[in-house]
Amino acid sequence: MRASVLQIAVRPDEPADERRARVSGLVRRQHASDLVVLPELWTVGAFAFDAFAAHAEPLDGPTAREMGAAAASARVWLHAGSLIERGPADELYNTSLLFGPDGRLRRTYRKIHRFGFDRGEAALLARGGETVTAVLDGDATAGLTAGLATCYDLRFPEQFRQLVDAGAELFLVPAGWPAARRAHWSLLARARAVESQAYVLACGTAGTHAGVEQAGHSLVVDPWGEVLAEAGAGEETLVVDLDPALVAKTRAEFPALRDRVLGVPVPR
Question: Fewer Cβ atoms within 10 A, N terminus or C terminus of the chain?
Answer without folding.
Answer: C
